[in-house]
Structures are given as structure tokens and as C-alpha cells.
Amino acid sequence: MTAVDEVRRTIERLRREVCDLHAELTRYGLVVWTAGNVSARVPGEDALVIKPSGVAYDALTPAAIVVTDLHGNLLDGDLSPSSDTAAHAYVYRHRPDVNGIVHTHSTYATAWAARGEPIPCTLTMIADEFGGEIPVGPFALIGDDSIGRGIVETLAQSRSDAVLMRNHGVFAVGASAKAAVKAAVMCEDVARTVHISRQIGEPVPIAPEDVDRLYARYKNIYGQQAGERELR
Amino acid sequence: MTAVDEVRRTIERLRREVCDLHAELTRYGLVVWTAGNVSARVPGEDALVIKPSGVAYDALTPAAIVVTDLHGNLLDGDLSPSSDTAAHAYVYRHRPDVNGIVHTHSTYATAWAARGEPIPCTLTMIADEFGGEIPVGPFALIGDDSIGRGIVETLAQSRSDAVLMRNHGVFAVGASAKAAVKAAVMCEDVARTVHISRQIGEPVPIAPEDVDRLYARYKNIYGQQAGERELR
Amino acid sequence: MTAVDEVRRTIERLRREVCDLHAELTRYGLVVWTAGNVSARVPGEDALVIKPSGVAYDALTPAAIVVTDLHGNLLDGDLSPSSDTAAHAYVYRHRPDVNGIVHTHSTYATAWAARGEPIPCTLTMIADEFGGEIPVGPFALIGDDSIGRGIVETLAQSRSDAVLMRNHGVFAVGASAKAAVKAAVMCEDVARTVHISRQIGEPVPIAPEDVDRLYARYKNIYGQQAGERELR
Amino acid sequence: MTAVDEVRRTIERLRREVCDLHAELTRYGLVVWTAGNVSARVPGEDALVIKPSGVAYDALTPAAIVVTDLHGNLLDGDLSPSSDTAAHAYVYRHRPDVNGIVHTHSTYATAWAARGEPIPCTLTMIADEFGGEIPVGPFALIGDDSIGRGIVETLAQSRSDAVLMRNHGVFAVGASAKAAVKAAVMCEDVARTVHISRQIGEPVPIAPEDVDRLYARYKNIYGQQAGERELR
């Protein structure tokens, strides 16, 4: 098998994976209509695969998933790439450890984002998954690098794999597209639980040293597949 | 094919489309029992197709969808038209650019409507889809033109395709029945997110010039199907 | 066909209907586990059919539905009748116009019941369906007639087909089991919308004369099946 | 059939049961991703069956369920046991009447847990199922006996079969795995209803003597299967 064939096969596999992972977004109610997307880096190539723009989740097929370079220019596919492709591409250029990205406007996380408030670390699940509060990124208009830069700069100051972009929604990253989807699912889950807790009182923060212990343990020993956790 | 045959075929197609689009209302939880309806204008004719009154969504078939003139008088169909037909018909008479209308009592949007409060533009998704706040229309009794007039007059002062009718529910319009359903789905989604954000603080408004930029971009370049966005 | 055969057939039909209607309770999320039930009067007989006690909705079959007299004594069936049978039976004895009853602990309606607060008539849907606020009945222990009496006495002072039993849940009645299920579904829907509206402000009440107009119109002309509305 | 064969058969049956019961956790929305687990004691043996760590609910098969001793050491299975196994094992060692345990981070119950607030007994369903308020257990780190000890000590001072572990989530116990799942489902249901009731006022408490009457009746006569209730 030539190197070219191998890249082709990798892209086919990633198209299937990324297509299938969108079903997790609808399963957990993170998206409505066409408002959310998953991408994956093509390993060893300056390329990514991503959802096309404006296509319903039900109608999504592996063949509809498009391939772009790391500046969002279409390399392969019949449809236009997601209008969020530039933001994904910026993150892949500046975070070589990131191989998957998810964007949603999931309800509870976006509600925190609309107030510009980080989600405080008041649940063991937040400590486990995010190693502290889930941070807020800047307000940024679509059309240049400002969303991508906002994501990268905010995540650089945090152990979290998810960021709440102000007035906008969630971006989640991972060592794989599946890991990024997990972070997006967990982000909405804890956003909801802490929101509900705060509606009628104050959730108790977890002491920073306990957050560190929980995060270290979870990062090292949870789950069967070491690979899934390797980003942290 | 005669002109009469062509109209007949168009009506058959619209009956199927409108029947199918009701499944989006149940999928996104916008309706319970029989409390919501979709209509489409029959292009070039003084006619519309609409859900019959009091029929369960599961039991809806294309053949059950009825045809009325633009004053709500039955032209074809075995069942009575939706009791909201007069309001749909009024809008089609006064808005030649509108080809589809949806009415729901979706929970969060109706909760804003019960307080008579517009949904403030605090999310990029609201700026994209609605070009500003989602406005409130008057309280109006069913039985004459007051609901239809309230919809048309309120939308005339706004870029929004959705209106919250006071103490009642949502009417959404579009260049097609599908575009109207999209507006209804998005209206409930942002009504929910902003409501939740406001429960424990104040969501930050988006500056009017940024709203304009977001709306202009979205209107012009989002999605694959230019036709779907042509209303705006 | 003898009169006995006819009653037998009627009971078989009602067992199927009542069995099927429980699927509406799960579809609309009104019940968890086994905590809710539907019954129907056997017309012309001192008998009712009702869900057996402690049986999962998935496992429910027409044959599992039991028949009791109007004091809750088992007439036919292999399982014990619902522990709420006495309350259903009391209502059938005292309300000859009622042919179907539903009991749920649906979340939002029960939340109002836990505060002992009626649901104010702030939506056209409440005016249409319930003719005014949805009233609260007394706190009552299971085991004697107090629940049934509380239902009947509270409904006697109201146009509503649903009552919020204090600290407990909802009872809804109708001219048929299906009409009662509709009232239970609508009760939860408006309980949720008005609750959400009240979380961040005050929903505007509808003027009593408008409530009367809406209720009169809906009672007389909505829907295809006159029979379904005949109770009101 | 030898005694060894009998134990093998019992384990096969429990693996199927425990595998299937996880579907109730997803059905009622108590878990996301892999964050929740069910176990059952192997009767007469120092052993339990439990979900493996980090496996998706969809992918769960009876063969994937693992067997450990009552200190969490793997006896049979290809995968690592749930990271919560030590807590389950501690409870089985100290509560011989408990044969099933469920752990979730279900939203509303965990929201109470994040504030460290018990769920007050303001619904007849709470009195029936839990015999009083649902108590809060201590904050405890994973890795030693502190979670298990926290569960056992908290439940010892209560009639409740569920405990809200501070900043963490719910543990529910039962005479069978199914009874524990029921307690977990009911715990989330009442956590949600009472939370919603408290959002806009104060739910009225039920008098302690009425709580006792409701609990006594429910424990003794509800349902068809006496065995399911025998723990209480």
C-alpha cells in the first residue's frame, strides 16, 4: 500500500468516525437543526475533516463530510465546509496535541457563556474531567482568527478541555474526536447540574488540593482505553 | 401537462412536505397533543395547505392535510382546517414573501410571551437567525383578524421571522414551510438558553453593530441552499 | 349477541384502550417507573377497568388490566388493582358524566401541588382547556374516601377537568379515558410553561371575560370529534 | 447440578440482569457517557457483579459485566471493574440486607448534593419510597473506604434507600439490583419535583405522623411482588 493510499484510507475512517460522532450530539441534546459540528485532524497531514455547512444531522453521511487544509480551504468534498472551519483550523495549527474538536450551542453551557461566567468546580465530575472551573473565552466575531485565538489563549491558562465562548457557545478539544465529544457532553452535563444547584442556593466549592487529587487520579487510571485520556 | 395538473401536483407535494414537517415539531418537543400546526402557500394560487384541526401528529397523513383559500374556506379535504387557519391566511394575504407559517405553544418561548417580554439579543445565534430581539405581539382573541394582524404588524417592525403572541404562543414565518419550521425551532432554543441564563444573573447584550455584522454574514453565506435563506 | 356478550366485548375494548393510553403517559414524560394510572368506566355497569398495581408500563398488556366494581373490589383479573383504585371508584360513583380518570405525579404540576398553589390562568391554552385556574385539592391520606372526596369537591367549584392534590399529584377526568389523558397532558404542559414564566417575573393574567370567551369557543368548535369534548 | 455449577448459573443470570438494568439509567436520563453503574451481590458468595470501567451503555453486554470479591479484586472478566467498585464492595460487606447498589450523578439529585442539602419530605411519593427526607453523606475522595463508609453511616440514620454524597452524586441500595435502580429513579424524580417547587416558593412539609403512615402502608401493601419490597 502506498503512502497516498494510506492517507486515503485514514481519511475514509475519519469521515465515518466524525459522521457517527454527530449522533452523540443529537443523542445528548447538545444541538438543534444544524447548529453544531465535529472535526478531526488527519494525522501527519496539514488537513482536517469536518461537517459540511447547513446539513441536517439525519442526512449526514461519511461522503458528505468534507476535507480542508489547516486554513479551511476545501481539499475534498461536494459541499461547503462548516462556517466554523476557520476556528477549528486555527486550533489545530496552534495545538499539535489536539486531534479532535467539537462546537455546540448546548443550552446550559451557553447560558453560562451568555453571562460570561465560568462554571465553578463544585462537583467531583468537574474536578475529574476538567481539573478546575470551565473557563470563559472572549466575545469574537466569525470571519477572521479571533474565535480560534480566543479558544487557544483561554485553554492555555486552564486544565480544561472545554471553553465557553462569550455570548456564543462551547468549543471542546481532545486527543481524538471522540474525546472532544466526551468533553462537550460532560461540559453540558455539569453546566446543567451546577446551574440547577445555584438556582436555590450556593453549591459548595471543592478545596483546590482535592481538585488536584481527583484530576490526577482520573487522568491516570480511569477507563479501559489509555489512549482516550492521553491528552491530559 | 395542463396548468390544472401542475397545481394538483404542487398541492400533493406540499401536502407531503407539510405533513412531514410536523414531525420536526414533535422531534424538538415544540408541541403536545394536537397543539401546533404548519402551513404552506400554494404558489401562484390564492390557496394554502394546513394541518386539520384536532388530529394527532402520529395519525397525520398527506391526505389528511387540507387545502383552503386565503380566507380559510375549505377547498379540498375531508376534515376541518386548523382553528388557526384564519391567522395563517391573513399573514399570506399581507406578506407575499412568506410561503410557510408555523404556530406552536413551545414552552420557553410561550413563557416569555406570558410575561409579554421580548427575548433580548444576547446570543450570536439570535443575531444570526433573528437579527435582533424576538418581539412580542398583542393579546388577541381567536375568531376574527386580530391574531393575523398582530403577527403582521409586529413583524413589520423587526428583522425577526418569529413573534411571541402575548399569553398565547409563537408564530414563525419563512420563505418556505421548512424555513418557518427552522425559525420556530431556533426561537424555542434561544428562548430556553436566554431564560436559563437569566435565572441566575444577567446575560450580556451584544452590541448593535455586532448584531448587524452577524446577521449580514449569516444571511448571505451560511448553508448550502441559498433558497432556504432568501426571505431575509 | 346476548347482553352479557356485549358487556364482555366492551370490557375487552376498554382494556385495550386503557392499556394503550398508558403509552401517552410515558411519551409525554408524565410518569416514572409505575407511578401513574388510567381507568375507564364500563358504561351501564357498576364497574371500571384500571391498571394493576406495581406493573411496569412496558410490561402492560390488555389482559393485565383489571376490572373492579365501583368500590374497588376485584371482579376480573389476575393482579391486584392499582392502589389508587378507591379514589377512581369514588369519582365514578359521584360524577356520572365522568367516564375516564388519570392519575400522575407529573413534575411541574406536582411542584405546584407541593406548594398548594393553583396554576393561574395566564395562557390562552389554560383558558381553552380548563376554563380558568387549575385548582388545588386537599392533602389526603390513601386508605379511605378522602382522596376521592377531595377530587370531587374541588372539581365541583371549577370548570377544570384537572385538580392538583396537595403534596401528591394530579387527577384528571374526562368524558372518556382519552379525554382524561388529554387533560393530564395539557395540565403538565401549562404547569411547566407558567412555572418557567414565573421564574423570572410575573405572567400577565388573562381578563375573566376573555377567559370565558376562549373557553366557550374551544368547548363548542375545536377538533373533529364532538364526542371528545362533550363533558364540558 | 453441582454447587459450583449453580454459582456459575447465578452469576450468568446476575450479569444479564445488571447489564439490562443499565438501560433503565439511560431511559430515565440518570447518566451520561459512562458515568453511572449498577452492581448486584452474588448470594451466598463473597462476590459481586458490576459494570466495567469506561464502557458505553450501548456497548454493554452480559459478558462485559465483571465479577469481583467484596474488596473489589477482579475474580472474572476481561475488563477493569468500575472505579466505584470499592464503594459498592464496602456497602455489601457492612449491609448484609443489601443485594443491589446503583451509583449515578443524576442532575437534580446531584444539584442538592452540591449544596449539601437533604431533599425535604414534601411529597407523598417521598414519604412512600424513602420514609422521610433523603439524607446527605460526607464529601469523600475516591481511593480508600471513605465513600463506602459515608454511604453506610448516613443510611444507618435514615429510612431512605438513597443518599446524596456531597459534591458528588447518588448511591441507592436495595434488596435487589432492580429495587436499587427503582430507588435511584425515584430519587431523581422527587429531587426534580421538589427543586422545581422550591424555585418559586416553599413546598409545604408533610406532618411526621403522616409520613409514618404513608411509609408503613406503602412498605406493606404496594405492588404485586412482595419480594421487591422486603428490604424495608
Automatic annotation (TrEMBL), chains A, B, C, D:
* Enzyme Commission identifier(s): 5.1.3.4
What UniProt keywords apply to this chain's record, in alphabetical order? Metal-binding, Zinc
| Gene Ontology MF, one | aldehyde-lyase activity
Required co-factor? Answer: Zn(2+)
Top-level EC class: isomerase
What's its catalytic activity? L-ribulose 5-phosphate = D-xylulose 5-phosphate
> What are the recorded Gene Ontology BP terms?
pentose catabolic process
An example Gene Ontology cellular component term from the record? Answer: cytosol
Keyword Metal-binding in the entry? The reply is yes
Taking every annotated instance into account, which residue ranges of this chain make up the domain Class II aldolase/adducin N-terminal? 16-195
Q: Which domain of life is it from?
A: Bacteria
Q: Which family does it belong to?
A: Belongs to the aldolase class II family. AraD/FucA subfamily.
Q: What is this protein called?
A: L-ribulose-5-phosphate 4-epimerase
Organism whose genome encodes this protein:
Mumia zhuanghuii
